[in-house]
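Revision sheet: structure tokens.
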Amino acid sequence: MGLLQTMLVLVLVTRMIVSVVGVASYDYGDALSKSILFFEGQRSGKLPSSQRMTWRKDSALRDGFEVGADLVGGYYDAGDNVKFNFPMAFSTTMLAWSVVEFGKAMGSDQLAHALDAIRWATDYLLKATSVPGLVFVQVGEPYGDHNCWERPEDMDTPRTTYAVSKQSPGSEVSAEIAAALAASSMVFRSVDRAYSAKLLSTARAVFEFADKYRGSYNESLGPWVCPFYCDFSGYQDELVWGAGWLFKATKEPYYWNYVMTNAQSLNSLIVKDIDGVLYSGGSFAEFGWDSKHAGINVLVSKFLLSNDSTSSAPFISNADKFICSVLPESPTKSVSYSPGGLLFKPGGSNLQHATALSFLLLAYSRYLNRAKRVVHCDNVVASPARLVQVARSQVDYILGNNPLKMSYMVGYGQNFPQRIHHRGSSLPSIDQRKERLNCEGGTPYYNTSSPNPNLLIGALVGGPDIKDCYSDSRADFVQSEPTTYINAPLVGVLAYFKSHPS
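Predicted:
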């Protein structure tokens, strides 16, 4: 071999090594374990002896007491101390879907922790649906809570309970809880059959309640649920979503027929306005704690593709349209990408879109692969492998493959957010300061430029702006606040890449 040929071979080998190192440089298993651990930092109630995030202590031990109900437990949704059941239920559904779809890839230890995270939510959701004729949808007066910066262990703001009923319905919250319980029943079926059966029977009852007494909780509870988790997309999508999960859990024709009968009405329901920003792309392109449209299409498409169905129902075509709304090269793309490659949609806490849509990309890629199908976006053909590639690009961006070389997961890598918008993380733990901090007592800690004293390991923040810039500031909550519904979809995504690292 001549010198020139030898040099060319060395260059090619070097490039291959760099490429492999680049792909393998992200420890998806480590990120997975941290993404699940995050949920322990969001726990409300009496913490178990197995609690690993030990700077957190017991909190909100009298939730529901004033109305004669036990509403202790569950999760704080974000950096505040309110329990909003609408996003909590969605986060639970996504954790359960992560296990249903990718649980075998988690490994026994992380699967056990994932089940613990799900059960912490479902135990609470069972309590929230235990009073006949009522579904509790929120604990904590949000304005009072948001005006204080105090540890959950200290909070003295009103722990007001809010419920929907036959007279004041809340179909979106009730149906999302039904979806969460149905999905979770599948997760526990092989490890705790009695608990699984209880989850499923409750899911049936709550779904029936949501469907029979239709209406949005915006109408009855608007002053307390808006603008925090106002329902912008209507409650019909949650009803179809809940029926879809009940069919998946039971295989009963009633729920399948419900999905098929009611799906057509979703096409006319377009998300119009989120935080004052108009959405484009239509309902088929939306998925998150509020809008379930794309999730419904992907979920239902699995049954249709596996049965080689010739049904005229729009699920597969709408799932394909969703894919075409996301792929960077698609002529019908309706999302934006930053220069560094992060997916963007209107609304705050942008990483919720990157994680939720990446989950759908991976799930749909699996269904397409089994059916030996590809997606056609006009003249662009997208293989299942291409969907995986786009999802990986989002995960790698989050973990550090971005212009700032920064991980947006707290505790992962060497460079990650230090000043997240989170009360418990930013205030000294009871281990460091036993004296109570009142409503105003935490303000100096909020205003300081010092890093948070407690690491909320695994927390995904809202993320950088569309120019790939990130201000590591508590005050910039759009960028620096973590939420359960940013993390939940990523659990499944990381499990997949843990078993497919390159």
